[in-house]
Design brief:
The chain is built from 15 helices and six strands. It is mainly alpha-helical and 566 residues long. The strands form three sheets. A two-stranded antiparallel ribbon has the order 1-6. Strands 2-5 form a two-stranded parallel ribbon. A hairpin with a 3-residue loop joins strand 3 and strand 4. The N terminus and C terminus are likely disordered.
């Protein structure tokens, strides 16, 4: 397939024939298949840890949370590799192959009983069960974290690879970047639906070895599909380490601290036209963080980028600093998401899960509810909302990135309030039917959870795509992958802080969530607390968003120099 080469051996394909919707289709295919495997295991691995590896409930939940948080946090490494050493295409293929190896190891362990501890006869005997020995645990965690490492690189490189297929400086193609991210989320959703229904059903009824095997094949085909589009991709050339460039700005600014900052931008160092030799993104000077402008002061002592940087390099650093508060203000929404994923599943296990006469919805499949709502809402948003909003605002994407993120944060707060109301209703049914301490399902349908899930699904649609598009659009050309990786890191910190939030609330409240019986816990109060904190978080976000200044870009070319403001 020529995966390791970005230069074609045959006649070069004209740039006009590269990219576009045709190239993006291969990206959609990889995302759908990879996410099918990832989400299926994200919602059900707790049962594997508990039932097959003899972990207790606490260790099972903690292992899953650490796995999820690590997978999203490692996207920073994947983004760094993609921007610095490899193209986004090579990053997706390399990390996809690592993903396949991880799932293959988990498949082998699930298939051969001698690679797992002896199963417990009954849940009551968990204290007397054989624990996994060091070799069995090592095999489990090796496979698990190879999956985390592999999926992190795919998540960092794949959105940027797809968005690269549309030229942000072309008036006709630029609006299609937003369309790409909407359909990227749609493919992610479709994969998730298949994962939490089909793959979860396989793991519950046919065996974990078969479920892991299906995940292995899904990611393998994902790598094959993204490789098939190599000849039609617009490939990015790595532009060196963005971290090094950022550190150089701070070092140069400190070295030039005693020099006055020029008022005119023309007096600062920049590389123009004939010095470039290729198309280059030139960032215009902004007036925030003016102390960093000292890094671009031209002086006779200057000679290296550690003493004199370009204005573009300085602005690249400013962009990262400006985006950081936006990133921080979205973490709490993902903390709420982590709580919704755990507690809502526990709520669902106490409710009537029978549908269509006799079919019983598996507890790990309950998250299919928000995915179905997203499956419906994304096309409506792209085909109806965006055209209508475009007529009102005149913005090609309908609304700006930060406005889209803000809408998602508002919907997140509303979903937490609704979740509290639904939990109050569930508890009232338990009290009304004298089933507070009963293990039997309550006479209330699990689809009551659909209200909170529907609203949060809409919130996720606005915020996740808004974040990915915002960080991709605002990042410089040399750190697009790292930008999308930062967006995914919001999930990582959300998962890591979720456990802390529960522990703090339990300690301060005197045990709202300390009981093993949801009918006696005060989960509704916890949801309402999250709703209130979400409102406060939205207020912080409004301050950060109003302070943010979008970047201004001009593109310089050696021949036929042209400029366009973004």
């Amino acid at each position: 397939m020529g995966i390791c080469k970005d230069v074609e051996t045959g006649p070069p394909l004209r740039e006009a024939k590269r990219g576009g919707v045709r190239a993006a289709l291969f990206v959609y295919a990889m995302e759908g298949l990879e996410n099918m495997a990832f989400v299926a295991n994200a919602v059900s691995l707790v049962t594997y840890f508990y039932g097959y590896m003899n972990f207790n409930i606490t260790k099972s939940a903690t292992t899953l949370t650490n796995f999820m948080g690590t997978a999203f946090l490692l996207t920073l490494f994947g983004g760094f590799i993609s921007d610095t050493y490899l193209s986004r295409f090579k990053t997706c293929v390399l990390f996809g192959c690592i993903d396949v190896v991880g799932y293959a190891l988990l498949t082998v362990q699930a298939h051969f009983s001698q690679l797992r501890p002896s199963p417990c006869k009954t849940p009551e005997q968990m204290d007397q069960c054989d624990a996994a020995d060091s070799g069995q645990a090592a095999l489990l965690f090796t496979g698990l974290y190879l999956v985390a490492f592999g999926t992190s690189g795919v998540k960092a490189g794949l959105p940027a690879l797809g968005a690269d297929q549309f030229d942000e400086n072309d008036p006709e193609e630029a609006p299609l970047i937003s369309t790409f991210f909407n359909w990227f989320l749609f493919s992610l959703t479709v994969g998730g639906i298949f994962g939490v229904t089909f793959v979860v059903w396989i793991s519950s009824n046919q065996g974990w070895d078969l479920a892991f095997g299906i995940s292995t094949l899904a990611v393998l085909f994902a790598v094959i599909f993204v490789s098939m589009g190599k000849s039609v991709y617009r490939h990015n050339a790595p532009k060196g380490s963005p971290i090094t460039r950022i550190v150089q700005v701070f070092v140069a600014a400190i070295r030039n601290w005693g020099l006055p900052v020029p008022e005119k931008s023309q007096e600062l160092h920049e590389i123009h036209d004939k010095e470039v030799g290729m198309e280059k993104e030139i960032l215009q000077r902004t007036h925030q963080f003016r102390f960093l402008d000292r890094a671009a002061i031209v002086s006779t002592a200057s000679g290296t980028p550690w003493r004199m940087c370009t204005v573009t390099q300085v602005e690249e650093t400013k962009i990262l600093i400006r985006m950081f508060p936006i990133f921080l203000s979205t973490i709490f929404m993902n903390t709420c998401l982590a709580q919704l994923q755990t507690f809502s599943i526990q709520q669902g296990t106490t409710m009537d899960r029978n549908i269509l006469g006799g079919f019983k919805v598996p507890a790990p499949s309950i998250p299919v509810i928000p995915l179905i709502f997203m499956f419906i809402l994304i096309p409506l948003y792209e085909r109806i909302f965006v055209p209508l909003a475009r007529k009102v605002t005149g913005i090609p994407t309908g609304i700006r990135h930060l406005q889209r993120i803000g809408i998602g944060l508002v919907l997140s707060a509303i979903s937490m309030a609704v979740a509290g109301a639904v939990e109050s209703r569930r508890k009232s049914v338990a009290i009304q039917h004298n089933m507070v301490d009963s293990l039997d399902p309550l006479p209330i349908s699990v689809f009551w959870l659909g209200f909170q899930y529907a609203i949060f699904g809409a919130a996720d649609m606005f915020t996740l795509v808004g974040l990915l598009e915002f960080f991709y659009a605002e990042s410089s050309k040399g750190m697009k992958s790292l930008g999308t990786a930062i967006a995914w890191c919001s999930f990582a910190f959300g998962y890591f802080t979720s456990t802390v939030v529960v522990e703090v609330v339990n300690k301060v409240s005197g045990g709202w969530l300390a009981s093993n019986n949801l009918n006696r816990d005060k989960l509704n109060y916890f949801y309402w607390l999250l709703a209130g904190l979400s409102v406060v978080n939205f207020g912080v976000y409004l301050v950060c968003a109003s302070w943010y200044r979008y970047k201004k870009v001009e593109v310089k070319e050696e021949l036929g120099s042209s400029a366009c403001d973004k």
